[in-house]
Write a structure and sequence with these properties.
This protein is an alpha/beta fold. Helix content is 39%, strand content 20%. It folds into two domains: 52 residues; 233 residues, Rossmann fold, CATH 3.40.50.1820. Strands 1-2-3-5-4-6-7-8-9 form a nine-stranded mixed β-sheet, with helices on both faces.
Length: 312
């Protein structure tokens, strides 16, 4: 049986081959253009368009969807009813998570994942899952919310269980929590047929800090997709654990930073944006005027990001 890792490597290999073919095409077109008497010939324009196609982020449906091939489903430790649907609670890698399966449909499932801000209020209330559910249902996606291992803050080490304003924060620079989230996502790939390149992440505040500082740094190559980074974001403390210079590994990933112009995290976010841009990631930046920290509809913005990314 072919493993998930082998499936993903095959996808990357095909994309790399396609990129090399495109580069060859660009070379031929550019050579023809060089022999032309006019710099504005169709050949020159075609070369320019081909180069832009290489530089531009791939769309999520640009290539055949490859699924993980997982089967069996996840066993719930408990269940609840949310928005008239069955909510399943389980755990993996030291992290609890909640999820709702989409209505039955054919083909691999997309994966919509929420990482909460400090205090985990939107996780506990299921408000994030409720807001994401309509879009996820319409796009054949599992809707998942994951609780930080310390049960309060994704960007702090698992052993720091006091996330109150008076506590001394201990940043998870090494990315231990990234390992926990990957364990959860790997479980979904093992138990459901999940599309390997159609991942939709929504981080809020500390959840966005975690995604940029730790998760993308460690696992952005195996979990590419749309990252809705609301009111948070930081540069990693350590180097990428994968070759981010390889466009095939960056795959379809695009980062969407949204924050208020009065957010106290604005300086950190505006350091992270050029960092990831220079690291090769396409960036979308939206600044909300007269908004303080998370002073906008973050759930709604995540849905808007996913709709923009997919085109619907």
């Amino acid at each position: 049986m072919v493993s998930v890792g082998e499936r993903y490597k095959a996808v990357v290999a095909r994309r790399t081959l396609n990129m090399h073919r495109t580069l060859l095409f660009v070379g031929v077109v550019a050579l023809n253009a060089a022999c032309s008497s006019s710099p504005n010939t169709p050949a020159a324009d075609a070369a320019s368009d081909a180069l832009l196609a290489i530089d531009a982020p791939r769309t999520p449906d640009a290539a055949p969807v490859v699924g993980s091939g997982g089967t069996g489903g996840i066993t719930c430790t408990s269940t609840a009813t949310v928005a008239g649907r069955r909510l399943c609670v389980a755990s993996a890698g030291g992290a609890e998570f909640r999820f709702i399966e989409p209505p039955a449909a054919s083909g691999p499932l997309r994966l919509v994942v929420y990482t909460h801000g400090d205090g985990a209020r939107a996780y506990a209330s299921d408000s994030a899952i409720k807001a994401l559910l309509p879009w996820a249902d319409a796009h054949h996606a599992l809707t998942v919310a994951v609780l930080a291992p310390n049960k309060c803050a994704w960007w702090q080490v698992p052993s720091q269980t006091d996330c109150s304003p008076t506590a001394t924060p201990v940043s998870d620079d090494a990315g231990v929590n990234a390992d926990a989230l990957k364990a959860v996502l790997d479980l979904f790939r093992a138990k459901y047929n999940v599309a390997l390149t159609q991942n939709y992440f929504y981080g809020a505040s500390g959840g966005s800090i975690f995604l940029t500082k730790s998760f993308l740094r460690k696992f952005g190559d195996v979990y590419p997709g749309a990252y809705a980074l609301n009111c948070g974001g930081e540069t990693p403390a350590l180097a990428f654990a994968w070759n981010n210079a390889d466009a095939a590994l960056r795959s379809v990933t695009k980062l969407y930073f949204t924050y208020g112009d009065m957010d106290f995290l604005k300086p950190d976010i505006e350091l992270a944006i050029p960092f990831f841009m220079n690291a090769g990631f396409p960036i979308d930046q939206k600044v909300i005027v007269n908004a303080e920290h998370c002073g906008f509809d973050a759930h709604g913005r995540a849905v808007e990001v996913f709709a923009t990314y997919t085109g619907n």
